[in-house]
Amino acid sequence: MQASLEAFRPQSQLGAIAIATLATLIVGLPMFVLPMPFAAAAPIVLAALPLAVIVAFRNPFVLCLIFIVFSFFRIHEAFPVLGPLRIPSLVAIPTLVVIGWHIFLSKEIKPFWSKELKVFAIFFALVTIGVMFAVSRPAALAYWSATYWKIATMVVAIAWLVRTPADFGLAARALIIGSSMISVVAIQNKLAGIGLVEGTRVTISRDTGSVLGDPNDLSLILLFPLGFAISIIVTPNSGWVNRILGAVGAALMIWAIVCTQSRGGILGILSIMGVIGLRIVKSKLVLISVGGAAALILVAAMGISNRSSGGAAESGIDESAMGRIYAWGAAWNMAVARPLNGVGLDNFVPNYYLYSSHWDGQNHAVHSTWFNVLAETGFPGFAVFVYMIYTIARSATVSMFRLAEARAPPAVQAMALALIAGIAGFIAGGTFLTQGFTWPVYILLALTTATSRYVDLHCPKVPSPAPTAAPAN
Fold first, then answer.
1. For the chain, what is the mean pLDDT?
2. For 72-106, b where at least 16 C-beta lie within 10 A, e where not — what string?
3. pTM to 2 decimals?
């Protein structure tokens, strides 16, 4: 050991000065290049970098989780001070490098291929082929290369990386914390009257063109982790710290969704609470009564009647609802005109004018996951997508019961319950929100796959007792 250290020791005083000067330049250069306050933090970041590398290689899921949280919640858009760091892009390549290291070199990650991943692979292939035949190939290719291939890569990464109860617990807490951060910003904007649409509906970073700038998309992003927060609260032996985190997170998410005044958000909240309620409340009458009261409270709290579109001032079918009906009709026309591959990924809005029966001077979003997938992938893609949702719903349900029978760790049981609630929220809220090619359903798919894999490895099926022979007469 002493001999190896001697090899790195400078042979002269001049050499020692040169090494010290080089180290100082490496640490100090970012202070002159980066804007404040990142310049002041650069030495600390560089000093912590070796430790971060060690942590990333010891637990690659941490790096993967950072990428997912920033990409899904758009943390850097809600907090513009983080924008110059470009954290999603900064973390993406190291994440792939670390995953590749553990698969091909250290072999600590054991790749597997499940039914859920097979169905997703078929759907991904149909979407990718559809890019080549899209009405606007540049638009489809731009979305595929900027977002969709990253989603596909992270689906496989999450499915392979989440292996222990600690991983499941970490994933749930990270999603709750990320959503809570966005919720706080949304609530602050509502109270301060910043970025409100139609005078009452809250948004975030609308002036910069952020995804969070649409109240429906913001509601969708906040809705997804709600099931994780509530499941942690109701799962026995979750620990008081996790329960406090879940309770605070759930309260912030519901408050922020209320501020968006999204009717799809209401349906999503009620679906999530209903599924979890079915698991913990024995009396169905009590559950229905509480659910009805919760629906009335949410509608009143949202003040939907005060919306300029879809409010009480509009008689009959309101303008917002009619807009959805026209958009769904356009989606159907796109699928009928191009049944095999639809109009292509991210091509609904640019083609709205060509296929809609009603034109008011501007293109519109489809505002439905199902019609979105139908329009952009055609009938084959829609059929596979629906089967994919059925597959993960069935897998999550089976996992939940087997985990309960095996008395698995609370973190894994909470994850299984959260997944079922999340799928229910997706099915209900997704009917009025566009999320066919965004993160939520694919994170649900990946975590469901990981949970099913954990069940297969640690919760063997209990064989049914053999039938006893009838006694001889």
1. 84
2. bbbbbbbeeeeeeeebbeebbebbbebbebbbeee
3. 0.84
